[in-house]
Design brief:
The longest helix has 52 residues. The protein contains six helices and no strands. The chain has two domains: 56 residues; 88 residues, no CATH class. With 160 residues, the chain is an all-alpha fold. It is elongated and about 85 Å long.
Length: 160
C-alpha cells in the first residue's frame, strides 16, 4: 500500500502539470490572436490606402504607370474607364473576402455567415474582370484562399 503523502504528492504534481499545460496552450493562443490582430491591422491599413487611392482616382494612375513598366502583362491597358473602376472595386472586395475567409477557417464566424459570403462571392466570380484580379494578384494572398477561389472559378467555368 502507498503512503498517503506519496499519493498527495503525485496528485499535486499531476494537477500542477495539467495546469501548466493548459496555461501554455492559452498563452500560445493569445500570442496567435495578437499576431493575427497585428496582421489584420496591416491589411486594414492597406485596404484604407487602396480605398483612398480609388476614391481620389489615383489608383488608376498607379496602375497605368505599372503597365508601362511591364507592357502586356496585364489586361489593364485594354480596359475602359468603367472597367478600371470595376477592377479597383473587385480588388478591394477580393482582399476583404480573404479576411472573412480566414476568420471562417479559424472558426471565428459561424458557417452560416460564411455561406452568405459564398453566395455573393459566386456571383462576383462570374465577372471576367474579377477573374483578371485573381490572375493579376496571384501569390499576394493567403494560399488557401487563393486555392479556394481558383477552384470556385474552375468549377464555374466548367458549368458554363
Amino acid at each position: 500500500m502507498m503512503d498517503p503523502i506519496t499519493i498527495i504528492l503525485i496528485t499535486q504534481t499531476a494537477i500542477f502539470t495539467l495546469t501548466l499545460i493548459v496555461l501554455i496552450i492559452q498563452v500560445r493562443k493569445q500570442v496567435l490572436a495578437t499576431r493575427l490582430e497585428v496582421y489584420s491591422k496591416c491589411e486594414a491599413d492597406y485596404s484604407s490606402l487602396l480605398r483612398m487611392l480609388t476614391q481620389q482616382g489615383q489608383l488608376r494612375t498607379i496602375y497605368d504607370d505599372l503597365v508601362k513598366m511591364e507592357p502586356g502583362t496585364w489586361k489593364w491597358e485594354t480596359y475602359s474607364d468603367r472597367e478600371k473602376i470595376l477592377y479597383n472595386y473587385f480588388e478591394l472586395n477580393y482582399e476583404l473576402v480573404e479576411r472573412v475567409f480566414v476568420l471562417a477557417e479559424m472558426g471565428w464566424i459561424e458557417s452560416e455567415t460564411w455561406k452568405e459570403w459564398e453566395v455573393w462571392l459566386t456571383e462576383v466570380c462570374q465577372h471576367p474582370i474579377f477573374r483578371d484580379v485573381v490572375e493579376d494578384t496571384a501569390g499576394m494572398f493567403y494560399s488557401e484562399f487563393e486555392k479556394y477561389i481558383n477552384e470556385k472559378l474552375s468549377n464555374l467555368l466548367q458549368n458554363t
